[in-house]
């Protein structure tokens, strides 16, 4: 085991390398590109075996990844944002193939307007695809989760592709100390790839992904995917236990921070949750009984874990770094749907949207959210959903608009 | 290249590999070509299919193939072939499968995918010199959805989306040249109605490495409007009128494998199909017919 300063992207590449990935179909996109550059350099310098092929689009890349996994080799790929959306047809398709492989997504806001910085609208667009989905908050987690993801994907009870998500810039380009497991120890943990029945061999012809006629066979195969995903929670717990035993690091389904005695709880996913963690520390110093829940698994959704962890709490603030247009925060929607009808669920589950396109969520805003929760409890009224934005930001945008206006005027006069 | 095994019609394979009873239309020219192609290629193949008529060949739990099959999506078949080929190569390198277990990836798409949505992935596959075979069954329109015009539709043809007096205003895209411009190992045009020419080309392609691409003109009774029993006859006319040149791109050169002599007037071909009926009824559209004839004449003059 060595300890090194690694970016999230380098950690993802280490995950693929230590998992002894055979095949890497790739395509560059900011802020993911460093992952595939790192892998390509290792392969070119004989530091790792494996074959890396640059396809001409993410649609093709995901098709090649699924097809290789369906032929029977261990496969890794990575993308981000527009790339994930460009490949979305194949995301759904290869999940239906039951092709087990691992893809790292480096979260980045979606166009339009086009931007480079992170939020979770890209990854959540893949929410219903049949991929399992795990969100990381540290570079260490990116490496560890990539190894764990192979175990999940290839488990006989699951046999589905897995997305490991890291946030663009904040994780992808931030160096943190990361423990890199020994090659041997990692290989023993991940194990050999067993294609089971998912393969193409001349001596054993098979037809994969054939059409069906009518809703009866279609529903059957779709329900099977759903049920395999639902198996994922129990399988994940086994894998997380084994990982903790072997490597001394525990990555639970939901990271729970100071929630045992908490009356109020923040719920956030991804690395922006570390901002909430800092706010919890400050609020605790000021006497608040407050904690944080950070779900790592989004698919399968850890409903029962949430119910248990939130039972008896006074109020919850779900801070979504995404926005379902015309609805609101996605995690808020998902969580409330699982809490509804359970007697000991918190009465107040408030929705906040922030961090879109990498917009910061300041400590003051977390304090304000805590105040909103406390007021809501005393009023016994759920507050309306809030889109986090400050007056100074608004002034900043007005200034930009004024400049844009002047520019246009000048152009039209010249 | 060894000499062909297919010197005469009686040399063609007498055992047929592709099962019958598929949901293809009666008289499907694409299926005719596929039967002939499969007999030469054999069962050590994995057909990688894009959305189109032939997606319905394998409907759970049936398949007419003795070998393997993977349905992908409309634009993704050559990319999936890349994944399959690379995976098989990796398995061979690691000695996890024997040479005998290897398969030839065969992309099977219609013209809708080949001329349009799938062209990007095909270009990428050729640029990477992917070792595979591509078969495009070209029925000159989006046939599976009811024959709307595609990039493969010929000038003046009536389709479900070009029902005006002059039919389709565009011109059939020259996919052969677009493919050949990538300088792959092999490109050829074939038609089921010329089985000897087809078998020789598939035989040749099978023995090669690298990207090998075949366009099979596929007379389509439902899309073109003719009696299913006319498929072979119309296919022969497509060749004899010079409308469908049989040729191959090999070693950087284009060779015509069957030069129609004498060339019949194009209207012999056009008048067999309802999609061109408006050229003759109620009035003969001399200008349009001449325009089509002139294009064909120009083509053959340029190569003769």
Helix/sheet category of chain B:
alpha/beta
What fraction of the residues of chain B are assigned to beta strands by DSSP? Answer: 15-25%
Which spans of chain B have pLDDT < 50 for at least 5 consecutive residues?
Answer: none
What strand order characterises the main sheet of chain A? 10-12-11-14-15-16
| Total of DSSP H or I helical runs spanning 4+ residues of chain A | 14
Average pLDDT score of chain B: 97
Strand tally of chain A is 16
The count of helical stretches of chain B stands at 10
Short description:
The complex is a heterodimer of chains A (about 425) and B (about 300). Chain A has about 425 residues and is α/β, with parallel strands linked by helices.
Describe this structure as you would to a colleague.
The complex is a heterodimer of chains A (414) and B (304). Chain A is globular, with a radius of gyration of 22 Å. Chain A has 414 residues and is an alpha/beta fold. Chain A has a 6-stranded mixed sheet, sandwiched between helices. Chain A has a 5-stranded mixed sheet with strand order 4-5-7-6-13, with helices on both faces. Chain A contains 14 helices and 16 strands. Chain B is an alpha/beta fold. Chain B has an 8-stranded mixed sheet with strand order 2-1-3-4-6-5-7-8, sandwiched between helices. The chains are: A alpha/beta (414), B alpha/beta (304). Chains A and B meet through helix 3, helix 5 and strand 9 of A and strand 2, helix 2 and helix 4 of B. Strand 9 of chain A pairs parallel with strand 2 of chain B, so a sheet runs across the interface.
